[in-house]
């Protein structure tokens, strides 16, 4: 098999298929021999696990997953990579490549078709930077049987995704993810581990589904509206941001915050996840 950790072999492979990197698709292929084993090890994949991989590229991470998992389904949007993947992963009989846009894939339908009866289903991927947030929210919102996602993402995105509520980095995305799951940064990755080398470093994160509603949120839609509108103008106080979103008078919002013992001068990054849950519950009571 081709050595997919050798820059020379990678270039020979790409030249063989006349492949050119697409900046628009955020294509940066892993070239570090230590990185993929570490990602898969941290993911908790076993011989009983069914794995969805997103953006397999030339198959370097795919191979490592396939050597440990029961089955791998890799979703690749770039049809130019299909003959390359047929070359690089043909040795494994537990790998299936699907040529599609992951944002258009019915995740529950895919699981029914490919992983019926599996005890454990995970996602493991080197995510293209430009679709990171959209992919994570899609996978969480579709309420599938996926138990965890181990993802390599841009370091700045990792910091936002895993930011603790009340911290400076916390935003609407980190709170939205926390509604569904727990997240953590596993380790950092240098830009030198890729070909071509991107302009930014990466981090590997793990998002683990959590069925507990720790904030006792009554209405999901009101919660997400509260969070999104609060962070849409971070320099404004929460009261000013929410008054226009819910068509509530500021006096009413001031009363809600006072009842919840939240300062009227609070900005969104100063509120905890539980604060947002209590706030959205109170707003829901007022608008129904």
Polypeptide structure, described:
With 288 residues, the chain is an alpha/beta fold. The protein folds into two domains: 7-209, Vaccinia Virus protein VP39 (Rossmann fold, 3-Layer(aba) Sandwich); 220-287, Helicase, Ruva Protein, domain 3, CATH 1.10.8.100. It has helices at 7-16, 35-43, 60-66, 82-88, 107-114, 132-141, 155-161, 172-180, 220-232, 238-245, 250-259, 273-287; strands spanning 29-30, 49-54, 71-76, 95-99, 120-126, 148-154, 181-189, 194-195, 202-209. The strands form two sheets. A seven-stranded mixed beta sheet has the order 4-3-2-5-6-9-7. The radius of gyration is 21 Å and the shape is elongated. The model has no long low-confidence stretch (mean pLDDT 92).
């Amino acid at each position: 098999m081709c050595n997919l950790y050798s820059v020379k072999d990678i270039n020979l492979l790409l030249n063989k298929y006349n492949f050119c990197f697409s900046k628009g698709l955020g294509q940066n292929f892993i070239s570090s021999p230590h990185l993929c084993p570490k990602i898969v090890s941290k993911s908790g994949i076993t011989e009983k696990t069914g794995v969805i991989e997103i953006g397999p590229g030339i198959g370097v991470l795919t191979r490592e997953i396939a050597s440990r998992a029961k089955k791998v389904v890799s979703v690749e949007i770039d049809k130019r990579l299909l003959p390359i993947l047929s070359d690089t992963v043909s040795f494994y009989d537990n790998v299936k490549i699907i040529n599609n846009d992951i944002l258009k894939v019915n995740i529950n339908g895919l699981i029914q078709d490919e992983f019926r009866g599996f005890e454990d289903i995970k996602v493991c991927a080197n995510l293209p930077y430009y679709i990171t947030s959209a992919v994570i929210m899609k996978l969480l919102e579709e309420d599938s049987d996926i138990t965890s996602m181990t993802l390599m993402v841009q370091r700045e995105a990792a910091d936002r995704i895993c930011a603790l509520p009340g911290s400076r980095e916390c935003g609407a995305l980190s709170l939205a993810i926390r509604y569904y799951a727990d997240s953590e940064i596993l380790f950092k990755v240098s830009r030198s581990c890729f070909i071509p080398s991107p302009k930014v470093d990466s981090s590997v994160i793990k998002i683990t589904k959590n069925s507990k509603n720790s904030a006792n949120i009554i209405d999901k839609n009101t919660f997400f509206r509260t969070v999104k509108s609060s962070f849409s103008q971070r320099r404004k106080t929460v009261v000013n941001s929410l008054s226009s979103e819910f068509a509530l008078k500021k006096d009413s919002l001031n009363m809600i915050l006072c009842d919840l013992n939240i300062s009227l001068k609070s900005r969104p990054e100063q509120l905890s996840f539980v604060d947002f849950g209590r706030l959205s519950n109170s707003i829901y009571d007022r608008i129904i």
